[in-house]
Amino acid sequence: DSGVTQTPKHLITATGQRVTLRCSPRSGDLSVYWYQQSLDQGLQFLIQYYNGEERAKGNILERFSAQQFPDLHSELNLSSLELGDSALYFCASSVGAPSFDYNEQFFGPGTRLTVL
Amino acid sequence: AQKITQTQPGMFVQEKEAVTLDCTYDTSDQSYGLFWYKQPSSGEMIFLIYQGSYDEQNATEGRYSLNFQKARKSANLVISASQLGDSAMYFCAMRGDPWGAQKLVFGQGTRLTINP
């Protein structure tokens, strides 16, 4: 158990709908990362938040948005869903402060999203 | 930009044999970190081992070791005395400049199957 929790574990929805994925980082971790794992694109970084502020953005679609709340949990909102958004969405957390020592990122169990 | 290449889509190994999973990387950063993660069929991402670009010694963690050859830009994972439970997908990843985006860039992965 990595200490990172994600809910829900599975999500099945229809095209055009909107969903929210939730992540609670490990105790003490200030950074939250979102990754998408799909068969055709592999594992891709979406976005990072550090202590409530957006820190880095990757290949995140405009239909997707995220935020990190004062209690450090994070939510990833996916809207106007398309079939191609079906994927495993991971949240990861780390201590996060810029450092010469690379803090490993601990991954949650993932949310498997199926868009029908 | 950073890139990770894993050239072995699948590998089959007899139980108790050692196995080497290949990883090459490309980056213009002077400082970077290299990681290996294991993803069993259950889907979670498990951190295995980390190597810093300035580390002079190869990293080791139990049965896992990282064969780091900086001049060749390779960071191969060596698993000694393989076990049936080692059957999984293995991903090599890197992080670049610690003061920049702290995202992980992943390779496409290698599916390792341990035969009894």
Descriptors:
heterodimer, A: mainly beta, 4-stranded antiparallel sheet, 11 strands, 0% helix, globular, B: 116 residues, mainly beta, 6-stranded mixed sheet, 50% strand
Structure write-up:
The complex is a heterodimer of chains A (116) and B (116). Chain A is mainly beta and 116 residues long. Helices cover 0% and strands 52% of the residues of chain A. Chain A contains no helices and eleven strands. In chain A, the strands form two sheets. In chain A, strands 2, 4, 5, 6, 9, 10 and 11 form a seven-stranded mixed beta sheet that branches. Chain A has a four-stranded antiparallel beta sheet with strand order 1-3-8-7, with no helix packed on it. In chain A, a hairpin with a 3-residue loop joins β4 and β5 (42-50). Chain A is globular, with a radius of gyration of 14 Å. The termini of chain A are far apart. Chain B has strands at 3-5, 10-14, 19-21, 24-26, 33-39, 46-52, 60-61, 64-69, 74-79, 88-95, 105-106, 110-115. In chain B, the strands form three sheets. In chain B, strands 2, 5, 6, 10, 11 and 12 form a six-stranded mixed beta sheet that branches. The mean pLDDT of chain B is 93. In chain B, a hairpin with a 4-residue loop joins β8 (64-69) and β9. Chain B starts with a strand and ends with a strand. With 116 residues, chain B is mostly beta strands. Chain B is globular and about 45 Å long. Chain B contains no helices and twelve strands. The chains are: A mainly beta (116), B mainly beta (116).
How much strand content do the residues of chain A show? over 45%
Radius of gyration of chain A: 14 Å
Q: Biggest β-sheet of chain B: count, sense, barrel?
A: 6 strands, mixed
The number of E-state strands of chain B comes to 12
The string of secondary-structure elements of chain B, in order, is EEEEEEEEEEEE
Query: How large is the share of residues in beta strands of chain B?
Result: over 45%
Largest interface: A-B, 30 and 26 residues
Average pLDDT over all residues of chain B: 93
